[in-house]
Amino acid sequence: MHEPNPIFAADLAVPAVIREAPGVFLQGRRIRSLVFSTDLAVICHCNADAVLAVYPFTCQPAITQALVAASQRPVLNGVGGSITHGERCVEVALHSEMQGVAAVVVNTSIPVETVSALTERLNVPVVVTVCADDAQAARQIAAGANMVNVAAGAATAAVVEALRARYPELPIIATGGPTEASVAATIAAGADAISWTPPDIRELERAVMEKARRLAAEQGAS
């Protein structure tokens, strides 16, 4: 069946094939799809099961509060990495937990000691973003990471497959790539849930305006 282009739909729909993923459980819900965005307009008009809110700055409580309030579904909130780590990362993560996030996310450069501190002091899952099945990922998982988020570009499915073989019970979130075929391949490799990057908001606005102009022209000609 032909899927409608989400750019022209009332809401942004994640690829239908994501429904084949087994899912991870957060806040009592089975999560198969996560929208990778901090844009509230996109989040509020997307049908993803959860929100992966990671951005390249130190986590701000005001942003976290807005995301949790607007999303109406589990939010996995970025709290640290190369910029924010150590006790500052732990403080930000504890604040995020109190604000109601479903999990906290750190990137691949986070020190192993920070992963250990997070898992010791938080009640919500700690998700480590990994780019390879390497010694760094193994140390972070051994330090107590509850989940991994695989973001390895074109190699994502291969990294997922290697991690799944090494850690059969480890919950794995992974980027799905640009097509339904790449999403399906990532799920087949062992991903439990898929993060989906929506179209750029400028692209969406441009498409809506072009459609509006066409409709206005057609009405004017009739």
From TrEMBL:
Q: Which UniProt keywords apply?
A: Dioxygenase, Oxidoreductase
Is Oxidoreductase one of the keywords UniProt gives this record? yes
What is the top-level taxon of the source organism? Answer: Bacteria
Cross-referenced Gene3D superfamilies: Aldolase class I (3.20.20.70)
- This one is known as Dioxygenase
Q: Which GO terms describe its molecular function?
A: dioxygenase activity
Q: Which SUPFAM superfamilies match?
A: Inosine monophosphate dehydrogenase (IMPDH)
InterPro entries registered for this protein in UniProt: Aldolase_TIM
